[in-house]
Design brief:
By secondary structure, this protein is α+β, with helices and mostly antiparallel strands. The chain is built from four helices and seven strands. It has a single domain, classed as Electron Transport, Fmn-binding Protein, Chain A (Pnp Oxidase, Chain A, Roll), CATH 2.30.110. The longest helix is centred in the middle third of the chain and has 14 residues.
Amino acid sequence: MAASNQDCDRIQSYLAKQHVLTVAASEDSQVWCATCFYAFVPEQMSFIIMTDKSTRHGAIMLRNSRVSGTVATQSQIIANIRGFQFSGSASIPEGNDAKNARRQYCRRFPVALASDSTVWRIAIDYGKLTDNTLGFGTKLIWERPIETIFARTPSE
């Protein structure tokens, strides 16, 4: 299901205003999640995160790039609840893509300039924004076209 332009704009606007996601990684019977700061790249529908390869979730993502996660707004008022659920692929960018990803992340979080931690890109393949501000239980869906998922290079 392709999102309308208006739905896509709403999803991108929401993700650009937030800054923390939870990413879940799994391999065999091992499942782990972590909370990470992120920079959102709307033109690629991707998140850039920074985390070491040696972390539990980083080590799992090296072996299995498929991830899922959430971005959530904290509210005790049901009418204001908004949150994004996603699935996608995590990869470590290379070359110019790595430089650009680090620059985008550090622009959002200047304190990261002092870090040599690994930069990752999470390419969103499927996302669902639940947005009660548009009416209780309103769900906006975005899906990456299937042909672009399989055409992606490892660093995308």
